[in-house]
């Protein structure tokens, strides 16, 4: 997977319920599930032998106390959105010289990749660029395996064969995920996380160190080329990860701004027009006031829940990619060589 994802087990790399929820599940669907759960719990609590909500509202002005607090919280949250936008925009602002340096650095990196994977011009789209880079890694692995056919050391040939098989399997899986991926969705970054380049760098260097005397000059050159190609994947992934974070923070800011005004409007409605005498009667054994108050509470916390669902994904990706380069942070794929 990555620096920290690389150590992932096969199941961890490819998914699992927890990672699917944290990373792949649509943020609006996750928000809807959380809010629906809160609504159901609030309505269900009305069946407990506690003081009825209507009595609390009549005697203690409970609705005004509850929903007036939401107004302050939503306005404060909107201010945080402005701060987030300023943070994101500050990364894009700069003098012409700084912008030119960024452009030159990007072009220099693209040229390095093209020289290493033998491409005349690498694709401009992130998914296609990563596809070509992973394909280049796969080609280097095939070249390495081909030159090993003439090596006399049988154990070394078997080691290389196993290594190449692992590279091929992982590369094919990642390439299939990148084929229809579009930047802006999480698909591109998810595919990048599934390529455990750090582990592959370690394995190649370990084989190089253990069997250095057994390598022919050509084989030695091929495995070094393999390592050099893998090294390019890390800065490429980190760059696209940074762009994705900026993209997501902008989407989060827009989502919170869209939700805030309707939420504030409903909070004002609950304070101004709903009291203990409103909506007499019940449905399904639940007081209408409970239905209305529960719905109002869910709308009141909706900006906060949207914020949580977006930040959960960003924080999870950040944790899984803390180390850049040939470092493995998690324990899921440790072995005797890593101890």
Automatic annotation (TrEMBL):
InterPro entries: DUF7972
Signal peptide: none
Top-rank taxon, per record: Archaea
Keyword list, A-Z: Membrane, Transmembrane, Transmembrane helix
Cross-referenced Pfam families: DUF7972
Membrane-spanning parts: 28-45, 65-84, 255-276, 288-312
Identification of the protein by name: DUF4239 domain-containing protein
């Amino acid at each position: 997977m990555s620096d920290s994802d690389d150590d992932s087990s096969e199941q961890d790399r490819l998914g699992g319920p927890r990672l699917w929820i944290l990373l792949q599940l649509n943020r609006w669907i996750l928000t809807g599930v959380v809010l629906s759960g809160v609504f159901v719990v609030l309505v269900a609590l009305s069946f407990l032998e506690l003081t009825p909500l209507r009595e609390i509202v009549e005697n203690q002005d409970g609705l005004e106390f509850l929903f007036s607090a939401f107004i302050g919280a939503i306005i404060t949250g909107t201010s945080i959105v402005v701060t987030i936008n300023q943070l994101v925009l500050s990364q894009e602002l700069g003098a012409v010289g700084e912008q030119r340096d960024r452009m030159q650095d990007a072009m220099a990196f693209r040229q390095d990749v093209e020289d290493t994977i033998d491409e005349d011009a690498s694709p401009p789209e992130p998914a296609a660029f990563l596809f070509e880079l992973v394909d280049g890694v796969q080609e280097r692995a095939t070249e390495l395996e081909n030159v090993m056919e003439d090596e006399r050391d049988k154990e070394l040939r078997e080691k290389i064969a196993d290594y190449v098989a692992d590279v091929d399997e992982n590369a094919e899986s990642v390439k299939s995920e990148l084929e229809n991926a579009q930047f802006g969705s999480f698909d591109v970054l998810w595919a990048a996380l599934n390529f455990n380049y750090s582990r592959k760098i370690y394995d190649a260097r370990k084989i190089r160190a253990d069997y250095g005397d057994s390598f022919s000059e050509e084989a030695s050159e091929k495995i070094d080329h393999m390592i050099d190609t893998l090294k390019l994947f890390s800065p490429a992934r980190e760059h696209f990860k940074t762009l994705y974070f900026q993209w997501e923070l902008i989407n989060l800011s827009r989502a919170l701004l869209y939700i805030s005004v309707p939420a504030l409007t409903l909070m004002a409605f609950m304070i101004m027009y709903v009291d203990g005498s409103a909506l007499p009667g019940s449905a399904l054994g639940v007081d209408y006031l409970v239905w209305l108050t529960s719905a109002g509470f869910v709308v009141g916390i909706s900006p906060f829940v949207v914020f949580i669902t977006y930040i959960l994904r960003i924080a999870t990706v950040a944790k899984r990619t803390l180390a850049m380069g040939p470092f493995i942070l998690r324990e899921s794929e440790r072995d005797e060589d890593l101890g």
